[in-house]
């Protein structure tokens, strides 16, 4: 009996051999006794549940901060000294900061729960020769599973029989095109998207029927492996939080040294009482800590979130807002992000054209807008009989339709490839061409074509479209303006290769005149005397705005890398149009698998396009970029992208076609699935960081001034000019209120012409530090002078209170000035 861990080889073996190794009868399936043994051996077909942190645990985790510890210690000392007002106010500040951090942490991670929700609940199996419906958790390796259209696949299966089976694998692979399945073995090195004889847990059957044998269940399935990778992937702290944490530790050490030093000085040199020096030390601690900073950070980030939302970027975790401003590499998926995810006919070849003189089709997407041109001139299909009949075939031999929604946007109803052809017909003025359909043969992977029998102006005509090699095989003539002639197969093969090299998918169209009595068609009745009308080149075109966005990234020092599950030829063609692939050839997932980690780091330096990738490849690429100290953003939509999104510095999920799993693993969700929105978000991220830096530069001189005033009083042997409660009032109310103006500062000029910040750059550089010291000396000097001038009549009772009040007001005025 083969173990589930050997699942990676089943696609390379014959179906009969797989059944034999799994000790399964192709007609009767497993027997009930054997099922019990296998269930005991492999466990239930489910993913383990993750133990969640309670909200109480998450709340108490917010106390794990050095500055919070210092404030708590200060409150405890104040309480021991019976200074209950000071102790209560300090603890209130602690509670406020903890609550702010708790809210800032955002929603709990639910990505693993989302993966579990993708699994099927029931399965139809053959056991003891009988077909029965069972709980999907009871599946075991060797079970025969019966699939039909609409079924969610309950486990990883090796297909043993198929009938026109097509599977939607985008949740797993990220590619929107349905996959045609077969039972023939594929290469051992084939990546996930090329394993056409496999059906994977969590994907959906869109058409046809099949039977497959279970080769992996639970955590051993592909989706289980992704679940395991999600658990093992470490989620990195954002650069801002790392800087704030480092700043807090340095500040805490400085506070302890200064407070301890002056405590000893006041006690031993100035002969202050122990109680008085404890209060002075508490004042130094409270003065140095910028208690209002968490509130200001939250406000600044929240305002940034609102601005980003208006530009189609939803931030799920508040600290991630600023991370975008530090990004140096954006790893982007192709389909739907760099491209429109709307198949479009770009070129048409007939017997009278060639690859360098083909018909050009303008426009993109499913909007029937765009001209047909040839040699730079507009073409009217009514004046071109060959083109006209190709468009008629595209319209009649088609089950798709397009329509406008309530907002005027054009929507496709049907398969993307057929949508491209129906849109082509509309562009050529044949949107209303609808000959009566008498019979049809739907597309099947076995035959690779679709055919319809139509009544058109009193004639019976069979329209045919499909894979070019199959359609050309069924043709013995080709259509020209002067009529049909013998087909030139070499010419068409050359044109097929030319279109494919541009990354376009090739569809061939043909027709056959039928007898007046013809009322139905079948595969066997379709002869080989079709007339070839031509070829159509279809591609998912790049978004127009993405080219400008990538250029803007280049100016901002941000590198863009395409990582896609699509084929290398298509990826390379799209990358060339976007300006990404001019310097190097795409690297495939199979090539990545052969690379060592060191070779991969070098490959990431030299290449911008990676094709036919799987989840491990994406995760390794993120790690390789991090090895180069790059701050990496990763986009994704399928479940396969979730581990890489979690590992990246900022994960970006697609809001339209992204799975819930991907959205939960990401820090940001794009509501329009558009790469250009990422660039807009980077602009906002850089602006937010600038505003945070301005705010810190404004807040810290107030702390410096307060600390200097306390220190000056200790050195001169005087009563404290400001009390701890007054210091907290300045830090939490006055300074925060004034700093609010800086949180809405507009974007700096040429913000996207600056290179990305290094992620290890400290918040305060030497210039900022010198400015803080200078402003602290000015503000502290004026505050101390105001206290001394008004305390000449005595430092007790009302006179002291009045002098302290004037000193506090002078501090606020100096800070505002």
Offer a concise description of the structure.
This protein has 817 residues and is an alpha+beta fold. The protein contains 28 helices and 28 strands.
Overall description:
It is a single chain. This protein has 817 residues and is an alpha+beta fold. The strands form four sheets. Strands 10, 11, 12, 13, 16, 17, 18, 19, 20, 21 and 22 form an eleven-stranded mixed sheet that branches. Strands 8-28-27-26-9-23-25-24 form an eight-stranded mixed sheet, with helices on both faces. Strand 27, helix 24 (660-665) and strand 28 form a beta-alpha-beta unit.
Q: Overall 3D geometry?
A: elongated
Mean pLDDT: 85
**Share of β-strand residues:** 15-25%
The number of helical runs is: 28
**Helix percentage:** 40-55%
Given as residue ranges, the uncertain stretches (5+ residues, pLDDT < 50) are 1-6, 106-112
Number of separate strands: 28
Major β-sheet annotation: 11 strands, mixed
Q: What gap, in angstroms, lies between the N and C termini?
A: 81 Å
Report the radius of gyration as a whole number of Å: 35 Å
- Helix-and-strand structural type: alpha+beta
Q: Secondary-structure map with pairings?
A:
Elements: H1 15-21, H2 32-42, H3 55-61, H4 66-80, H5 84-104, H6 111-117, E1 122-127, E2 130-135, E3 144-148, E4 156-168, H7 170-173, E5 179-180, E6 198-199, E7 204-216, H8 222-232, H9 239-268, H10 274-288, H11 293-309, E8 313-315, H12 320-323, E9 329-332, H13 334-338, E10 344-349, E11 359-361, E12 372-374, E13 377-378, H14 385-396, E14 401-404, E15 410-413, H15 416-427, E16 436-441, E17 449-456, E18 459-466, H16 468-473, E19 475-480, E20 483-486, H17 489-501, E21 505-514, E22 530-539, H18 544-555, E23 559-563, H19 568-578, E24 587-588, H20 589-593, H21 597-606, E25 609-611, H22 615-627, E26 632-636, H23 642-647, E27 650-654, H24 660-665, E28 668-670, H25 675-716, H26 724-743, H27 766-790, H28 797-816
Helix pairs in contact: 4-5, 4-10, 5-26, 9-10, 10-25, 10-26, 11-25, 11-26, 14-15, 21-22, 25-26, 25-27, 26-28, 27-28
